[in-house]
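User: Fold this; tokens only.

Assistant: Input:
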Amino acid sequence: MPEENPQKIVHVHLPKNEPFKTTLTAGNHELIADEPPNIQGGNDKGPDPYDLLLMSLGACTVMTVKMYANGKKWPVEDVYLELRHNKNHVEDCENSEQSTSKIDRIEKELIIKGDLNQEQLDKLLEISKKCPVHRTLMSDIQIESNLSV
């Protein structure tokens, strides 16, 4: 029986002859990441790290919405999501004493096509906030870093 939540492993490689172009490997899948040209050495050969973060959240969100709608047999024809990331330093500095103050802000705008009523649309919006990546980003994350030579 397959393991329910197997450990995810990805490999990331930045060779010495590349300023920032990075190869990301997950199983049989390979992606390229890079920095934009406005970052010294960036050649825009792939999405930057924040683009990849938004893509991960976006993919998980639309998959979760579609999976839920399919389970309910709701007539969802198309799911589209636009994500925006920004940092609001001024607002956060003004509210730095509040425990809810955060520098990073991600906005998700969900568009769902299909013959759905408002109650169904509201439920799908609610479900979109419960995708696993969304929940991970909203939780206390522990990152353990080690060095191997």
